[in-house]
Amino acid sequence: MHTSITRKLVNETHNVFVMLQGQVASSTGSNLQSQMVMSSKQYRAILKACSMDLMHMAETCEDEGERESFEDQIQIFEMIQLIWGFCQILFIEVTPDGLLLNQLLDWIKWHFTDGKRLAVDILHDEIPAEHPAYWEAIFRLLLQGEVDSVRKLLSLNTSNQNEAFLSVDELLRKMPQWAHYHHALSAAEFDMKWRHWRDECQRRLEEGHYVAFPNLETLVMVLCGDENVFAEMKDMCGSWYHLLVSKMLYQNPTVRAPDLHHYAEACMEEFTLSGTRMGELDNILLAAIQFDIHQVIKDSSAFLSTGSWWFVSHFTDLLHHCGQLDTQNLAYGSNLREFLLLEYASSLMSHKSLWQVGIDYLDYCSVFGRTYITQFINHMSLDNEKKAHKLLHICEERNMQEEVQTICKVMGMKSLRRGKLGAALSWFLRSRDVTATSKLTERLIMEYSKTGQFEYTDILDNLGPAMFLSNRLTFLVKYREFHKLYESGETNKAASLLLSLLEARLAPRTFWITLFKDATPLLESKEVIFNSGQTYVLMHCLEELRHELDAKTDISQKLTDMEKDKLDLLQLCLTRNLSKAIKAEGTVKTS
Amino acid sequence: MAELSPKFVSQKISKIRWRPVQKQSLKAAEYFVTGSWDDDINKVCLWRLDQSHVKEEITLADNQYGELEPQKVCEIGQDGDVTDLCYVSIENLVSTSSTGSVYLYRQNSQGINVINCWDRLHEFNGQSTPCTCVSSRGDDMIVTGGEDGRLAILNITQTKPVRIIEKADSCTVNSVTFLTQSEILTVNSFGQLKIFDIRVDKEEPTKILSVNEDNTPLHCVDKHPGQPHIVATGGQDGMLTIWDVRKDRFPMTLLEAHSAAMWEVKFHPSNPDHLFTCSEDGSLWHWDGSAMGITQGSLLTGHGLGGSQFPSTHHQTDKISSEASPWISIESSRHKLEINSLLPNKSLPVNSLDIQNYTLLCGTDSETIYTVPLPNLR
Lengths: 591, 378
Hints:
Largest sheet of chain B: 4 strands, antiparallel
CATH class of chain B: Mainly Beta
Strand content of chain A: under 5%
Number of helices of chain B: 1
Low-confidence stretches of chain B: 54-66, 294-323
Number of strands of chain A: 0
Strand order of the largest sheet of chain B: 1-30-29-28
Shape of chain B: globular
Largest sheet of chain A: none
Number of domains of chain A: 3
Radius of gyration of chain A: 43 Å
Mean pLDDT of chain A: 84
Mean pLDDT of chain B: 82
Protein name (chain A): Nuclear pore complex protein Nup85
Oligomer: heterodimer
Structural class of chain A: mainly alpha
Subunit structure (chain A): Component of the nuclear pore complex (NPC).
Main location (chain A): nucleus
Structural class of chain B: mainly beta
Organism (chain A): Patella caerulea
Shape of chain A: rod-shaped
GO biological process, one term (chain A): positive regulation of DNA-templated transcription
CATH superfamily of chain B: YVTN repeat-like/Quinoprotein amine dehydrogenase
Number of domains of chain B: 1
Number of helices of chain A: 30
Low-confidence stretches of chain A: none
């Protein structure tokens, strides 16, 4: 179903579907009904265009197998169009007075075009009246109610000046047609007019005006609605539903939908008697005439859905909104419409590209749609960032916070595994994932201790308030700031920053030694940078560190001798600085 | 305004670009190229649009549905998603792929052919990463950026890259453009605008600008055709930001625009008072700044389609300069900014747009190309 041609069908009808759901939500009453009819026509137009594309492809196709599959598809589409057109008349485009013969005639003319084609051939012929299919064309057109075309053909006959022909022409001219009268007359008045006309036809027939021309006689018998002549005409109709419509035209033009099925069975019998078997299409149409919508949908699902659920799902959705469908719930919790939409959407979700369309359909499945979406999204592969961004938008639009978190985490971990720590950090920050950020930062800190170089400075220097997400991250950013201040020579600021880092206990304990090492050049410099108060704080921190490290009973974590020496040196530095500071503070400055 | 026409093309369009016309030619642009994504086989397709009926004034009666329908001329398959397309000259087309490779195509009477290919141009720790964007300078130089944060400068006639800036960015480079002959401008997933000077040998950018404090990713960038220091970017939050890159860290103006990520922003090449944007929320907007001028008026709240408000955060350190472009003085004349939404119904995301003369093209995730005639562009 999802070949390059039918993909156009999927996308075009998706637009119609979404518009329809929107109109259902916003309009009511007769306004809504006209929207429904328009949507139905749009669906059919798109289907027709697709059919024509397929026909074109089939003609230009060279591969036998491909051509066969095109032709199969075309056939299925033809059946769908027939059914859809018929059901539109019965269920959707219901006229206020309930009369539907005109629409049925239009439907027949649309789908059975042999009569017209023959007529065109004949008109181009030199001597039309002697064309072998002359009378066939006339009868075919007559059965479709194309009165004007029939008159034209008759006027081309050699005997057209004969009384009999003129009489028939008059009858045809005076034939009352509902299309011309339905604004002016009521159904009952029209019926009377029509009966009057038919009586006239019968009278002329009985008086033998047409005995000389057997074909004309048959023609007028048709006009009178004679039962037997229709049995002869069935070949011109080609199918029982054509016969049904033709009969109605000449026997009962004011027929209403619920009464159709009385006549339908007789027509069907005509055909079955002569050996034609009833196929699925016929069963479906019969079920429609009997107003058994569920049967229609069931049979369509069984026979016309092998390629795709496109037809039944859109069709059922339309009927549902027209109020024609029973909203009974099925055993598995949702109604028929939702069930079919879910089937259709699921088939789209398994397609590489059409999943986006599928998600839109799932949005309109109120019971299970959301669950389905969640499931599908969790199984989507996040090939690249752009796709991840799109999926994130889809989740955010539908308030699926958990999925947002999951996607960000997956993207972050992917970047992490490939060593793109910068990108990973940006993903974790986006989802405000504290644990992951902390872990990542610890890794960055460790890398710094190993290499002495800061990576990803373009991120670290520009984090803004995001740095407060995790303590570790705040520390790292501030630490980097300290280095920048130190390098640019702003030692006082650097010193107070370093002090606050230690005081706030933001750094991991293991890093304190490094911090102290960074402090050493500041302590050793000639100027007094750390005043006495600050030095006391530093000493306090050092003590704390020593205590903690000493208190560890695990031998492997005990300080090595070298480290103990370092701490002692540090103690010495601090003491020296303290003395410097006290001296400086105690000195009276001479101005 | 004449009707726009959709064309269903059976593949999701990721990029759409007009083919440039001869400089002296007065003909309207005829050919355009599209790239697809997220399909089993992705393609680069060349289309032809017969625009001989498009005149300055088009009445509704003149225009028929079928007149502006593009016809496919030829196509070629490509590995991976097509992530960006760029015409270097009339015959040479560069396409970048999500496999990290970059391809050079040329069209002749038989169709499109690959002339050159830089395989795995973008990779990280040995694994290929998607290449995300490309921009060209003159007839032969291009620069590409990717998810690996690398910038590669290539000459299309050579197989080895001219220069690779390995660590240009810690995050993904989403879009790149040549600002001047020697400067490259990039935007990344961390909301930063970076300017690189390629004459200098170091890897750090000469300038880094940030869109806001939340570091929302920036997806697209375009420079003003006449004044390259004016740059427009679009971000993950759908905001349109206008920058003067000579100035400080933050943008000149931020305009709340779309309700989802903005994928592409473009100044009209010959009429830069007009700007176009398209977004993940399925809309395509035309920003008409031609009525804005330099005025001394007080600040007024803006208006746009549907009564949406345009609050702006404005970091202005200098006085308004007296240059001719209305985009700089947008603060005091924003109420004259007209914004039109060009697509009738919002549906699936619009990924890409391109504009030349009087016709705008866009490609969407609902596998549609829209041709939008804009006869009234002043």
